[in-house]
Amino acid sequence: MPFAALTGYYELVRKQEITVEPKCELTEEKALELSHKLEGLKRGDLVRVTYYDTYGYRSRTGILDEVLPAFKLLKLRDIAIDFGDIQGIELRGRA
Q1: Nearest-CA neighbor of 88 among 17, 36, 21, 15?
Q2: Distance between CA atoms of 8 and 89, rounded to whole angstroms?
Q3: I need a surface site. Which of 2, 10, 53, 74 has the fewest CB within 10 A?
């Protein structure tokens, strides 16, 4: 059995292997399109949001809790997403 002198060393090495996807800036047209979509959303809508997270882009489908323009946040039931991180929004259904 090998001796591991440094506790947690192998886990640290694995974390370093994660490749971070760079964040893309939105064009003015895309930003305007997203702004209009955000204005049209209502509480209870089923939406799919593509957004930038720590390591890259993710998509999450969920029920919209609220849009907070003053705080620049979109809140689903289990997550709050900053407007600046949103890449795309699709309306999947209305409540």
Answers
A1: 36
A2: 39
A3: 2
Range of the domain at 58: 23-93
- Calpha distance 8→62 (Å, rounded): 36
Backbone phi and psi for residue 52, each to the nearest 5 degrees, phi listed first: -90, 130
- Per residue in 25-76, pLDDT tens? 989 999 999 999 999 999 999 999 999 998 899 999 999 999 999 999 999 9
pTM over 0.90: no
CATH of the domain at 49: 2.30.30.520
- In terms of Cα–Cα distance, which of 2, 79, 1, 72 is closest to 31? 72
Residue 94 zone, left/alpha/beta (φ > 0; ψ -120 to 50; rest): beta
* Closest of 57, 55, 54 to residue 19, by C-alpha: 55
